[in-house]
Structures are given as structure tokens and as C-alpha cells.
Amino acid sequence: MFKNTTRRSMVLGAAAAGASLALPASALAQASSAAKTPLVGPLAPNPAEFKKLMEQFTGGKATQADGLQLDVPVLADNPSAVPVKVKVTLPITEQDWCEEIIVLAELNPSPLTCRLQFSAAAGTAEAAVRIRLSQSQTVHALARMKSGKVLVAKQATTVAASGCGM
């Protein structure tokens, strides 16, 4: 009988290297709350979650439109892998640096698509990632600086229909 030990050793190796194999607490919370509430649709937007994430990140502070650059294609041909680039254009100093950047997809069922954390040693705050979009919508990026400033940028994107019925 054939036994696949390669996969098992990869999983054990990842665990030994300090990698976490558990779901994030937010995913577990969403799964338990989804089991309690009727599902409107698998790709239904979640405006309450989007608003909650925005308020949590800003902490009720005013936001600043200058200082954050967001690059998302106007037309994304693959909704499962939409390229997103985020960059803080303000000067990064030892006194003021970007602590965290989040990327939110306004009409996704789970709006938080990406969370990035930085330290003063990074010297820059920029990243390029690919996110999944459930439909054409506005993508938002927010950055929190050490000084307390919250930077925002947003851009609308149109996604093409995929072949998998998404």
C-alpha cells in the first residue's frame, strides 16, 4: 500500500519551523456566526462587517487622503487574483513610520483581504499582493502611522466574469 509521507513531513516541518496551521480567530468566528444565521448567498456583500472594520482601524479619528498610494487595475481579468499595490508616500523616520496597512474589498462577503504590519526597521511601507474579489467594487487601503495619522486611498475596479461561475 502506497503511503504519502511527503505531505506529512511538509506539514510537520512547517509546524516545527513555527508556522501556524490553525485558522485565524476571525475565520473561526465567522464560521460559527454563519452557522447560526441564515445565508443570504455565498457571495453576498457584508456592509456591516466592512463598516465595523473601517471604524476599528480608524478608531474614530479623521482620515487623511494624502500619503497613501493604491494601485489596482481598472479592469481585472481574473477576479481570483487581482493585483494590488499599496505604498506609503510619506517620509518614514525613526519617530514616525507605518505600523499597519489593511486592504478592504467593500462588497466581498469577508471584506478584510489583507493585513500587513511593519516596524521602524523596515525603512519603507509598501507591498504588492493579489486579492480575490467577488464582484466589481471599490477596493480601500488604510494605513496607520506611529504618530496616529490614518491614511486612506480607494479605487474602483471592474472584474471580468470567471469561467467557474463566480
Automatic annotation (TrEMBL):
Q: Which Gene3D superfamilies match?
A: SoxY domain
Leader sequence residues: 1-29
Matches recorded under InterPro entries: SoxY, SoxY_sf, Sulphur_oxidation_SoxY, TAT_signal
- What range(s) does the Ig-like SoxY domain occupy? 56-164
Which Pfam families is this protein grouped with? SoxY
Listed A to Z, the keywords are: Signal
Query: What is the protein's given name?
Result: Ig-like SoxY domain-containing protein
